[in-house]
Specification:
The chain has about 450 residues and is an alpha/beta fold. Helices cover about 35% and strands about 25% of the residues. It is built from 16 helices and 21 strands. Strands 8-7-9-6-10-11-12-13-14-15 form a ten-stranded mixed beta sheet, with helices on both faces. Strand 7 and strand 8 form a beta hairpin. The termini are far apart.
Length: about 450
């Protein structure tokens, strides 16, 4: 593992990514010179610029700051696997500089610190955000790198000291194997990223390798039922840590927590959905294992407001609810459906979904069709390609044909607002990991202006 002590300058190719920007913010706050490139200006890149980070948006060598080009011996170039290998900046800097993936840098930053890491194909972002919030609110000297924007701090980085670091352990490209966790959790191991792993068995093998990185004097928590040994987490079951006596009061969960040593009554949690309750139990278990007093955690849990684009309410009135969610896998879509039905059992629910990646759409088409068919009505946007080129025969129209619910339509972005208005649905859920988040804001403004 490289030593960061002599590194004074950092250059991020793909600096606008959620994980990249958190590291850039951290290093800037630590006094390093930080700059980077991304294709387009976003809220994240604007925030970085406001914090003194130089960001350029033109993929050519001339856009790279002189400070980076003239100090290569003490400069680290950081890139994300999503960056095209033919990128002019990437090609030039690859030939001339120290170069690491984002995951390697995260491993370097967290190396030799007490590390709490959350892995899982679903749930890791919310669980990491809850855990970071719990430790911050109970006074721990914590730094947390989040895979989403926490609603509480409007940031993907918590900096309150260096005693303990909380990280989201990403399975994409086997990134999480660069970490050295003292306490870890695995929230789920559903098949995903098959363009990287090939099959589910290879994905699960990678998770077991991650689990093996936890030392003997550490602790691993796993969702009950997963094929990895560890302290179990569950809801209404006999897990080591389990939510019991669950009820809903004024739109919030109230539950009791059973641990191996005690039973804590009447905890309150704001986020809907059993999947989020499971995330909360996982975060509580990790915080308790770290040594946080349980009576402090009760207050901290109730004050957690959520993560942007994770069941985020954009409109919440008696007559209309608009929800924005990052769900881009069939399991996540089913979890959103469960949460919506639990909170709004008698209302018509319209789902707007933007498939993410042609390969994922192909690999999970039947499961996508099943999960989407559960909603009262489905609108499909075109597939968001992200890092991929189109695959022959794979499209949203192809997926739409597989959805058994006859209440379904293929919708273009320019028609989305008028189509949503015409449905007069009481609950609208917009889901996907592409650029649908930008459409959510347009829909929200249009619906508010009409009200």
């Amino acid at each position: 593992m490289k030593d960061l002590n002599h590194i004074k300058h950092f250059y991020f190719i793909g600096i606008g990514g959620i994980g990249m920007s958190a590291l850039a913010r951290y290093l800037k706050a630590k006094g390093s010179y930080v700059a980077g490139y991304d294709r387009t200006s976003t809220e994240l890149t604007k925030t970085l610029e406001n914090e003194g980070v130089e960001v350029n948006y033109k993929d050519d060598v001339d856009s790279i700051p002189e400070t980076i080009l003239n100090n290569q011996e003490n400069t680290l170039i950081v890139y994300t696997p999503a960056v095209p290998k033919e990128s002019k900046q990437f090609v030039h800097l690859k030939e001339n500089s120290n170069l690491v993936k984002r995951a390697e840098l995260l491993g370097m930053v967290t190396h030799q610190k007490f590390c709490l890491a959350v892995a899982g194909t679903h749930g890791k972002t919310t669980t990491t955000a809850i855990l970071g919030h719990l430790l911050k609110e109970t006074g721990a000297k914590v730094t947390a790198f989040l895979g989403g924007i926490s609603e509480d701090i409007q940031s993907n980085l918590i900096m309150q000291g260096d005693d303990v670091v909380v990280v989201e352990a990403d399975e994409f490209d086997r990134s999480f194997l660069k970490l050295s966790p003292n306490i870890a959790a695995i929230t789920s191991m559903d098949a995903d990223h098959l363009d990287i792993y090939g099959d589910k068995a290879e994905l699960e093998k990678s998770f077991r390798e991650f689990a093996a990185k936890v030392p003997k004097n550490g602790k691993l928590f796993v969702k009950n039922g997963l094929s990895v040994e560890g302290s179990s987490i569950g809801v209404n079951d006999d897990s080591d840590y389990s939510a019991q006596n669950i009820r809903i009061k004024e739109g919030n969960y109230v539950f009791d927590l059973k641990t191996p040593s005690e039973y804590i009554e009447n905890l309150k949690f704001n986020l809907p959905g059993k999947h989020n309750l499971l995330n909360a139990i996982t975060a509580l278990a990790m915080a308790i294992e770290y040594g946080t007093p349980i009576h402090d955690l009760t207050r901290a849990l109730y004050s957690f407001s959520g993560v942007k684009r994770r069941f985020s309410y954009k409109i919440k009135t008696d007559n209309l609810v608009l929800i924005d969610d990052y769900a881009h896998h069939p399991t996540e879509i089913s979890a959103v459906h469960q949460a919506v039905r639990e909170m709004y059992p008698d209302k018509k629910v319209l789902a707007v979904f933007q498939p993410h990646l042609f390969s994922r759409t192909r690999d999970f088409a039947e499961d996508f069709a099943l999960s989407l068919s559960d909603f009262d009505k489905v609108f499909l946007l075109d597939v968001y390609p992200a890092r991929e080129l189109p695959l022959e025969g794979i499209s949203s129209a192809w997926l739409l044909d597989k959805i058994s619910n006859p209440e379904k339509s293929l919708v273009q972005k320019e028609d989305l607002i008028s189509m949503i208005k015409s449905e007069k649905a009481e609950v609208v859920v917009m889901m996907g990991a592409g650029d649908i988040g930008e459409e959510v804001e347009k829909v929200k403004n249009a619906l508010i202006n009409e009200a």
